[in-house]
Structure formats: C-alpha cells, structure tokens
Amino acid sequence: MDGTTRWKASVGSPPWARGSLSGPMRRAGSAVDAASLTAIAAACRDHETLRFDYRTREGQASARATEPYRLVHSGRHWYLLGWDTSRVGWRTYRVDRLSLRTPNGPRFVPRDPPEPDVVAYMSRSISSAPYRYQGRFTMHAPAEVVAAHMPPTTGTIEPVDARTCTLSSGANDLDELAVWVALMDIDFEVHEPPELIDRIRALSTRLATAVLRHPP
C-alpha cells in the first residue's frame, strides 16, 4: 500500500473499455444502467464530447458539456472524470446523477490528466473537495491501520513514518467530522481548519466535565 486510499483498477472489463474504465462492473451502491456506462466508456475511447444534464448533491440541475477521460468505481458509486468545457476545468461527476443527451458532441484532442495518478486525484476530489470543511489530521497509527477504519472515498491517507500518517477528509458539519475521527479509536492531532480545532476543544471540555463526578 502506498499510503493513499485507493480505488480498485479494472477487473474483467471489455477490451474497448480498458484505459477508460476502472472498477468491477457489479458492486454494491447506486444503480447505473449498463447502457449508460457503455456509452460513457465509448466516448472516453473515441474522444467524443459528452452532453448531459447533471444534478449536484444539493439538487441543483445544469446542462454540461464534458470531454470525458475515465470512469472509476469507488466501491459504492461510478464516477466520471472529464474536462468541463463551460467551466474550463477538470470535474468529477457521479454517474448516477447525470442523464446523457444524444447525440454526443464533437471529437476532441485528449488533454493531459490533472496529475499522473488519476485514481488518487479522483479519490481526493470525492473525499474532500465537495465539502464545506476540509479537515487535516495526524493519526498516531500506520497508514494501513487507519485505512482499515474507513471506506476509500471517505478521505486520503499519506504516511509520515512507520507509526503515523496524515489523514485529510471533508464534511459539511464540524461535529460530524470531529466525532467520525474520534470514533476511530486512534490517537490523533487536528491541524485544520481553525473552526474544527475550536469545536474539538469545546467538545473535549464538555465530555471531560460530564465525567468529573465519576473518577476512574
């Protein structure tokens, strides 16, 4: 393990999908019909612009035009990495939230991916980028031990040494993020954001006060 939570590479994918499709076709999680996956993977292969309607996690709908690069399965959901031509940047889309339009748009010249390790890039974008708060922690346990406590898309892990690692994860609620890390039952230090540091300090004081009359 390289210390970063990873998604599985393609297993048993048809020859035309290799290089654009990562992850087994059948896994638990949101349902995506095979026809949509086939159409998206074919557009990745043929370098054809995809046109689709997309719904964000907040329920906002918009029309998108994207140069598709790769499909990846996280263990629960299918995701598409592509260059959004309107927003002029790389975006990661959850496939069960998009509705394809036909026909496809024009062919395009493939761009270099945002970084060489596309799977690691997508893992970070899913685990942190969409959230209001981005937490960073030093975990006092080896990277592989921390990884065993969390699904791959929950956060990214980078080893510091044989006994510690850095965990980055996001959430829309400070309490949710604080309690989630605490319930791993691993000693840790929180580095950012400042709001999370203050919230953990307040929660620690409240919990300590709750047991003052019950000495160990």
Short description:
With 216 residues, this protein is an alpha+beta fold.
Describe the protein's architecture and organization.
The chain has 216 residues and is an alpha+beta fold. The chain has 2 domains: 15-126, no CATH class; 133-210, 2-Layer Sandwich (Alpha-Beta Plaits), CATH 3.30.70.250. 25% of the residues lie in helices and 28% in strands. It is built from 5 helices and 10 strands, in the order βαβββββαβαββαβα. A hairpin with a 4-residue loop joins strand 3 (61-73) and strand 4. Helix 4 packs across helix 5. The chain is elongated, with a radius of gyration of 20 Å. The two termini are 39 Å apart.
List the helices and strands and how they pair.
Elements: E1 21-22, H1 34-46, E2 50-55, E3 61-73, E4 78-84, E5 89-94, E6 98-100, H2 118-127, E7 133-139, H3 143-147, E8 155-159, E9 165-171, H4 174-182, E10 188-192, H5 194-210
Parallel strand pairs: 1-3
Antiparallel strand pairs: 2-3, 2-6, 3-4, 4-5, 7-9, 7-10, 8-9
Helix pairs in contact: 4-5
* Proportion of beta-strand residues: 25-35%
- Overall average residue pLDDT: 80
Cα(first) to Cα(last) distance is 39 Å
- Percent range for helical residues? 25-40%
Helix/strand order, N-terminal first: EHEEEEEHEHEEHEH
